[in-house]
Amino acid sequence: MWLLIAIGCGGTRSTAVSAPPLPEQRATNVILLIGDGMGLAQITAGMYRNGNRLHLESFEVVGLHKTYAADNLVTDSAAGATAFACGVKTYNGAIGVNVDTMAVTTLLEEAEARGMATGLAATSTIVHATPAAFVAHVAHRHMYEDIAEWFLRNEVDCFVGGGWKYFAERQKDQRNLIDELEQKGYVVGSWRTHRFADMPLDASANMAFFTAQDDPPRKLDGRDDYLIDAATRLPRFLKQRSDKGFFLMIEGSQIDWGGHAVDAAYIVSEMIEFDEAIGRALAFAKEDGHTLVVVTADHETGGFSINPGSTQDTIVAGFSSFYDADHKRGAHTAAMVPVFAWGPGAELFRGIYENTAIHDKIRQALGWQ
Ligand code: MG
Ligand code: ZN
Fold first, then answer.
1. Which bound ligand lies closest to the C-alpha atom of 257?
2. In angstroms, what is the span from residue 38 Cα to ligand 2's centroid?
């Protein structure tokens, strides 16, 4: 088909060669897993410290993406996630808006409009930049209470993460968004009474679970396995919620925070947990057969390096990045980051491309025109 179009145009340009390959089979479901700040050294350190094994090794397709933002070669997580969610390069701090602060439809919103089920899970607050960019449209990432309001407008089928206070203990108004979610039919649970693992999931209603009042604790400080549980339970829940498929984003949020803290043990513990969540998503996809799993990062954090003297048990860490003002270490860096894909449409993710192409390739894998 591509070849005929190229000949019909009468030119000698190699349209037939450069046209993107169509996926051999369409994906019905997509699970996008984002390791915030997860560069190659973070993955490598996690792999060695995990007995030289990661679930990431079983992915059949690997690519790289260019992480830069519209206004800065070094992206932040807001512009990075907006590139994935909306397919546009925007300014650092932007949540679901373009460089002119105009809202751009997200993959999650498009999935909702097509009757698919949708979900979000993160080890940060659920209103933090990465998950926020899939549901909200605000000019700046720190507008947490405004971002929370978007969860009432978009009606994500399920979400799991911290940030209770932005829903229930608001500064800007007297609204209680937990009550409003329940009035809309959500079953809402929280860490105050039980773990996410012990919350019954009834696919006849939307579900929200809050894992902390604000930021969930570090894995090193005893955060439970809720992200792994989410990766295990939410695909099954979402599959029951719609026969048109689902879109689920799962974020390992604190790999980034380990890089900002210039703390290798923090990075490694978060990386290994995130990889276990990846393993659970992959196990679902292998059983299901119609699910595309894409794993990537928004950017690298720390300029993290594994230095001479390291062993598989002990990482001698370096952190080469710094902020301009005071040379404080632990900034984001502009290095390309890897993309791993498995399932129908995975082959689209080979090669080197812009971060915005993640959005376009997911749409293509789903057969969206
Ligand atoms: Mg994040
Ligand atoms: Zn960061």
1. 2
2. 10
**1 falls within a domain:** no
Say whether pLDDT at 349 is over 70: yes
pLDDT value of residue 222:
97
Residue 187 lies in a domain: yes
- Asked if 255 and 35 touch (Cβ cutoff 8 Å), the reply is yes
Query: In this structure, are residues 327 and 277 in contact, taking their beta carbons and an 8 Å threshold?
Result: no
Cα of 90 to ligand 2 centre, how many Å? Answer: 17
Active-site residue, selected from the candidate residues 14, 77, 242, 321: 77
Structure tokens at 1: 């088909």
Which CATH number is 264's domain given?
A: 3.40.720.10
Please write the tens of the pLDDT for every residue from 55-83.
999 998 999 999 999 999 999 999 999 99
Residue 10 scores a pLDDT above 50 = no
Domain count for the chain, please give it.
Answer: 1
Position 324 scores a pLDDT of 79
* 18 is a catalytic site residue: no
Return residues with CB closer than 5 A to ligand 1 (ion). Answer: 36, 77, 130, 253
- Measured in Å, residue 151 CA sits from the centre of ligand 2 at 23
- Sort strands 61-66 and 337-342 into parallel, antiparallel or unpaired: antiparallel
Query: What is the domain extent for residue 344?
Result: 33-365
In a domain, 157, yes or no: yes
Please list, in sequence order, all residues whose beta carbon lies within 8 angstroms of the beta carbon of residue 32, skipping any fewer than 6 positions away: 84, 107, 247, 248, 249, 250, 294, 295, 296, 358, 362
State in Å: Cα 11 to ligand 1 middle.
Answer: 46
Q: What is the pLDDT of residues 207-266, one digit of tens each?
A: 999 999 999 999 999 999 999 999 999 999 999 999 999 999 999 999 999 999 999 999
Give a yes or no: residue 188 inside a domain: yes
Residue with tokens 């190699």: 14
Ligand 2 centroid to residue 34 C-alpha, Å: 13
Its pTM stands at 0.94
